[in-house]
Amino acid sequence: MRPDGRSMRESILAAAVQLFAQYGYHAAPLRDIARIAGIQAASIYHHYPNKQALLVEIMETYMLRLNTSLEHILKEYDDPLQRLHEAIANHIRMHTTYKEEFFIIDTEMRALEEEHRPHILSLRDKYEALLQELLRDGMERGIFRQSDVKIASYAMIAMCTEVATWFRPDGRLSVQQVITIYRQFIAEGLLVLMPDVSRMPDESAHLL
Amino acid sequence: MRPDGRSMRESILAAAVQLFAQYGYHAAPLRDIARIAGIQAASIYHHYPNKQALLVEIMETYMLRLNTSLEHILKEYDDPLQRLHEAIANHIRMHTTYKEEFFIIDTEMRALEEEHRPHILSLRDKYEALLQELLRDGMERGIFRQSDVKIASYAMIAMCTEVATWFRPDGRLSVQQVITIYRQFIAEGLLVLMPDVSRMPDESAHLL
């Protein structure tokens, strides 16, 4: 069933993802991870030195995957709106496909030991920087309105990440439908209905 | 210093907020909460039956406060845009003021025992319902574009909640500046620069 060490590592990692997501890092004992992976508690140390190593590998693997996919989009497409659309779709697809892994990334940062923190934070910074590059370029080319690039990137990441917390594959909307709604919401906001209102947001309250 | 039981309860609750936010619910021992509150570990039981009761009280208190403030806004204002602006400001102010309390609400739902979960979830549902009422009314009155009310409410909550994770009182932007940026982002999105683009988002990629 598991002829090589690599495959056993994967089983252990999958068990760790399951338990960290369900009970939290601190509440998930290493012996339970071993049990679910189907090995003796003592044998787990042949593959990972400790529970922290599992957390670091989960975070690193999926954050790298997210970054690589966004780098690919920035290389593949030149048009800012197309890049934005692809980035939104990619973020939502990754977070709904690897729901538990990204939930751990989002909730267990404080469980990282000091020595691992800078590396993992640098991966998060990298993703934000890529997204900010996309937004800045779109603003400079006159496609996106001038706004605070950092805050726009945080807002986008927050709303697209949160999809994973409520999305159900058997729910009323497909991933693609959710992506379409988010693209419109991010690109145009709630208000773009009447040109007069969209051009004069501050005065609109008095016009009604 | 603490002449009555109520004030000791507050000290215990403040200590719980501090430790739950710093280490997580499961990793925060009740004896440390007692120590920080300045009482004997055994005496804590005169005020709260167990650690779970502390978690429930933190969640209930601040979720109720959030709901009450949004209900107040819906009563106070009639114009949908004004209501939206006030709701965004209120959400961001509450989450930056009671940063640790809302961080606990957002990350420790799974730590709630079965018997307390329905009540706390109903408070969250209530807040979403109030926000959805605001959005639906704005769409029906032709101020907001027709879109998925539920998803728009989730997206708004996610992005405004996340401000608490990066906002620093001594940072480059004040709370009010952040609120202004978020209002524009939510109402108008990233793209509202050129009327042609905002009216034809799907074709714009080909026009450039």
Automatic annotation (TrEMBL), chains A, B:
Residues 6-66 form the HTH tetR-type domain. GO terms for molecular function: DNA-binding transcription factor activity; transcription cis-regulatory region binding. The keyword tRNA processing does not apply. InterPro entries: Homeodomain-like_sf (IPR009057), HTH-type_TetR-like_transc_reg (IPR050109), HTH_TetR (IPR001647), KstR2_TetR_C (IPR041490), Tet_transcr_reg_TetR-rel_C_sf (IPR036271). Pfam families: TetR_C_24 (PF17932), TetR_N (PF00440). It comes from the Bacteria. SUPFAM superfamilies: Homeodomain-like, Tetracyclin repressor-like, C-terminal domain. Keywords: DNA-binding, Transcription, Transcription regulation. Residues 29-48 bind DNA. PANTHER family: HTH-TYPE TRANSCRIPTIONAL REGULATOR ACRR, HTH-TYPE TRANSCRIPTIONAL REGULATOR RUTR. This is TetR family transcriptional regulator. The lineage of its organism: Bacteria, Bacillati, Chloroflexota, Ktedonobacteria, Ktedonobacterales.
